[in-house]
Amino acid sequence: MIRFEIHGENLTITDAIRNYIEEKIGKLERYFNNVPNATAHVKVKTYQNSATKIEVTIPLKNVTLRAEERHDDLYAGIDLINSKLERQVRKYKTRVNRKNRKNDEQEAFASLPEEQEAENLQNDDNDSEIEIIRSKNFSLKPMDSEEAVLQMDLLGHDFFIFTDRETDGTSIVYKRKDGKYGLIETTE
């Protein structure tokens, strides 16, 4: 059973909005044999130009489903989010079930109706094979996060991995969609 934590920013979450989100996102349960006890974290934010941003994160046992969408119409945005999440589940489901079939394990995800399954497999086959086309090897240089951001910008990359001088742990700086920077720190 998927539980919902729905938060609104600059917007009051009405019963109609809550019901629509629960109805749409709740349909993901049909993809699972054993419906997981999961909590869907939903953030709905409105901006001054009346655009809305919807973020949905569903942490499951082996995978985290996440989708984000900006749209002028809240309900259309929720529909787009649902489509993105369904695509993620189908893609993951195909990979997991293939792996489990090879190991003779029970399938973790429920089967879809025959024709829809065949269509989904055709769509997913195009991008289901993970192919690493390039591999790099480099040593991590001790530095602070500001120096790592400068190095990342100099290289023209979207992320940069480094050894944090203060914690001696591996960290990653990355450029966010809004043009600002993020930092991921690892723990032992």
From TrEMBL:
GO biological process assignments: negative regulation of translational elongation
Biased composition (Acidic residues): 114-128
Region (Disordered): 97-128
SUPFAM superfamilies: Ribosome binding protein Y (YfiA homologue) (SSF69754)
Location in the cell: Cytoplasm
Domain Sigma 54 modulation/S30EA ribosomal protein C-terminal: 128-183
Gene3D superfamilies, sorted: Ribosome hibernation promotion factor-like, Sigma 54 modulation/S30EA ribosomal protein, C-terminal domain
Chain's role: Required for dimerization of active 70S ribosomes into 100S ribosomes in stationary phase; 100S ribosomes are translationally inactive and sometimes present during exponential growth.
Protein name: Ribosome hibernation promoting factor
Provenance organism: Staphylococcus ureilyticus
Classification of source organism: Bacteria, Bacillati, Bacillota, Bacilli, Bacillales
